[in-house]
Amino acid sequence: MKTIEVDEELYRYIARQTQHIGESASEILRRLLGMTPLNGEETYLSAYPETEESPVAGFVQTVELSELLNSSELAAKESAIDRFMLILSSLYQANPDAFTNATEIKGRKRIYFARTEEELRATGNTTKPKPVPGTPYWVISNTNTGRKRNIVGLLMTAMGYSAEFIEQVCEKI
Amino acid sequence: MKTIEVDEELYRYIARQTQHIGESASEILRRLLGMTPLNGEETYLSAYPETEESPVAGFVQTVELSELLNSSELAAKESAIDRFMLILSSLYQANPDAFTNATEIKGRKRIYFARTEEELRATGNTTKPKPVPGTPYWVISNTNTGRKRNIVGLLMTAMGYSAEFIEQVCEKI
DNA sequence: GACGGGATCGCCGGGATAATTA
DNA sequence: TCTAATTATCCCGGCGATCCCG
């Protein structure tokens, strides 16, 4: 479980949407947002301590991430760039620390990730930086699909994922 | 501020919906839930009783969508914009919740639906917002017929209608 | 902001392909 | 020089909004 801060009015709004006694905030929000309800198994997921340092060493595919592969959310993305961005978001969220370290990967001239738009602009002519949602990072986007796969591959390798899993992810882009 | 507990997956989903850096959980949720954003001149907002889910609640919605297609009411409309509006009204009445979720669809710069005229104005130069009758929503109207079809298509897809039915509806616009 | 509808045309984003560099 | 890797130009399709027409 995670905690988030919401303003008073929003809090009351959510509370008012309760449909049965004992319904949790998650259940209400999932319903209102049109997400699929949480089933039994997923509770098990949260058994992973959030503090868990780094699943790095080619370990724990983090169930969450392998779920992403067949999620409708990923499938719903029309373009390579959208799938690319969603995967980056998910990778960050799976392990912010490992992601942060891995962020140092770069090409011959261009750097691929930075905390600001300007940093990316500074290392190439037309990098077309984009913010990665839910993340303090920006990525370059002026790349063909092959390079997007490449970037994800480099990133995930640096994060410690197994080659097999990396390939599965890259195929989806 | 209040804190609420949400499950991991939901947390990640929310984080991913960030539209600009520094956007808070409240802001994101308000946007996704179709609430008005919290800001200075917000006193005006609270004038609306929060319980007022939709102005139309209580209406008997007898208009079956498939009936609409061959109805004289639709045929009587002279212009694409009128047929467009009638279809939107009917979609809302067929399923307010699904409509509300689907309302998030947008173009490259413009959002297509909002609860206020101003929100639509804010995302484009000349959107020409119009209220959708029988609905708490406004829609942009500065579009050609192709785009009106497009908007209905996107909306209905998000609402879960079949591609075949969607096509039948769009043809009528 | 006050005429409204919407076709037409200009612009932008995605990303394949051409150009460049090691 | 030839090849492989990387960059970024540039084409295409889609979106926005100007502006023409009823």
User: What spatial order of strands do you see in the largest sheet of chain A?
Assistant: 2-4-3
Spans of chain A of at least 5 consecutive residues whose pLDDT stays below 50 are 40-61
Dominant shape of chain A: elongated
Oligomer: homodimer
- Please tell me how large the radius of gyration of chain A is: 18 Å
User: Count the helices of chain A. How many?
Assistant: 10
Question: What gap, in angstroms, lies between the N and C termini of chain A?
Answer: 29 Å
Beta percentage of chain A is 5-15%
Label the structural class of chain A.
mainly alpha
Largest beta-sheet characterization of chain A: 3 strands, antiparallel
Please report the two chains with the greatest interface, counting residues with C-beta closer than 8 angstroms to the partner's C-beta.
A-B, 38 and 34 residues
Count of DSSP E strands of chain A? 4
Along the chain, the helix and strand elements of chain A come as EHHHHHHHEHEEHH
Description:
The structure is a homodimer of 173-residue chains. Chain A has 173 residues and is mainly α. Chain A is 51% helix and 6% strand. Chain A is built from ten helices and four strands; from the N terminus they run E-H-H-H-H-H-H-H-E-H-E-E-H-H. The first copy, chain A, has helices spanning 8-16, 25-33, 40-45, 63-69, 72-76, 80-94, 96-102, 117-122, 145-159, 163-172; strands at residues 2-6, 113-114, 130-131, 138-139. In chain A, strands 2-4-3 form a three-stranded antiparallel beta sheet. The model of chain A is unreliable at 40-61 (pLDDT under 50). The interface between A and B is large, with 38 and 34 residues. Chain A binds a DNA duplex (22 and 22 nucleotides) through helix 9.
